[in-house]
Amino acid sequence: MSDYLLALRAIFKRxxxxxxxxxxxxxxxIFEPFVWMLPVYFLARSFMVGGENLGFEAYSGTTDFVSFWxxxxxxxxxxxxVMWGMGFSLKNEMWLGVIxxxxxxxxxxxxxxxxxxxWGLALTTFNGSAALLIAxxxxxxxxxxxxxxxLLTMVPMLIGLxxxxxxxxxxxxxxxxxxxxIDISSFIIRTFSGQEFPVTVLPRVLMAFSLILPVxxxxxxxxxxxxxxxxxxxxxxxxxxxxxVMALFVSVGYAVFRRVERSVRTAGNLGHH
Amino acid sequence: xxxVITVFPAVWAVARREFKMFFxxxxxxxxxxxxxxxxxxxxxxVCKALAGPNGESLSTYASYSGTTDYISYIxxxxxxxxxxxxxxxxxxxxxxxxxxxxxxxxxxxxxxxKWFLLLGSSVYDMLRWMMFMVIAxxxxxxxxxxxxxxxxxxMLLVVLLSIPSIYGVGMVFASLVLWAKQANTPVNVVRGVxxxxxxxxxxxxxxxxxxxxxxxxxxxxxxxxxxxxxxAGSGLKAISGNVEYxxxxxxxxxxxxxxxxxxxxxxxxxxxxxxHH
Lengths: 273, 277
Known about the structure:
The structure holds two protein chains of two kinds. In chain A, about 80% of the residues lie in helices and about 0% in strands. Chain A has eleven helices and no strands. In chain B, helix 4 (about 70-100) packs antiparallel against helix 6, helix 7 (about 150-180) packs antiparallel against helix 10 and helix 7 (about 150-180) runs parallel beside helix 11 (about 240-270). Chain B is globular. At the A-B interface, helix 2, helix 3, helix 4 and helix 8 of A face helix 2, helix 3, helix 4 and helix 8 of B.
């Protein structure tokens, strides 16, 4: 176990060094939260009646669309971070020509994959905090709900996402393509789980799809706790769904990745891209 | 100076190489089909939620935008933005990917003006974008019921006039990527800034005065504005101001793009840092 922690620490440190090696990243990352928040803020303004989003209240139970959106946005940072961190890292290592060498080390591939997401998560936490600060100061973001249950709700979502990340990494190994696989899947998950709007606005077919996605319940419960929106189900039921899906995703994702890993090792095409 | 005879085969060779790689990864086809309707759909549902179940907030939106048809409004804005996005990734990644693969220096040694390498990949981007435009048109028509009330030829003119400025921005961007040795973050920021200032999903009338002033300088604002006006049935006279701005800014940005890339090329060659990443 301590060997694994050592490997995780080494990967985290390597990714951090590489990140700071490109100062432009650091500078631009400071501006990024603004860039993603402003369009939605102005879109909300174009629908405001007397300074409030009254139309939105009928769907969600709150007129505070900006806070609704910011909570979804920050949770999505984490979804993106895990999916890109695990899926894209493999493609990047293929390009750099180091994937075969890394797989020859004694650190298990799954540990390496998890390690590749850690720096992204740390950065996401920093960016998310900056976004919250900006949103609070400039856009009137506020919440008066329960923060601890909200954070606890996010834990099974994140662990479940790791399972999904294993599955995605397997798809990247098979297709040798990361950008489209990750971009499309993360966009679909985020959009139809209600990152930006209450899923009750969706037509029936799309709403049925959104109710299959576990992240829908995470968005819904966290907003319910923080800003008191109307939830789809009682929040305890939503948390139970998340726990069940977490176990399912991790076990299925793990099994799929191991199978694909064996297959590429046997075929000897790991480094092909 | 490279002669025309050597230039065309070189440009075509680069474009052909890009196409070969494109066909090698079938998932790119899926993205070409999915993105035109997937990208705007989130914004459309946000508008639907903000408007309310009975459209109670639509009148405010109409007072800013001049229309209650937020679907067409968003489709045009997101379409033009997606075009810029494709170009930014294309120009940005063209050289950056070669740096990572370790092939940029060897390609740089070819006896050609270096911007022909960019031109080759932009020919590929252009052809890919044309496919994207056709697919988007079909999907917008059948999925969202989008109809152009004005002249389709005028719409095509707006698109054609937007090409020089978008390519100019792309060339400036390629230089930036060579300097910064990073493509992802600069793309995210530049496309994000365009998203904020050009009124991709909302009328720029909701922006504060200073932001509206900035947005008037961006060619994409004029492209989106002109395309929306034509879609709503306006003629050439109504968009003449936008057309003039696109013509002038296109020439300026194109020249700036070439000059900036030439200068970057010289400096990077002198420093010997071309292959560094």
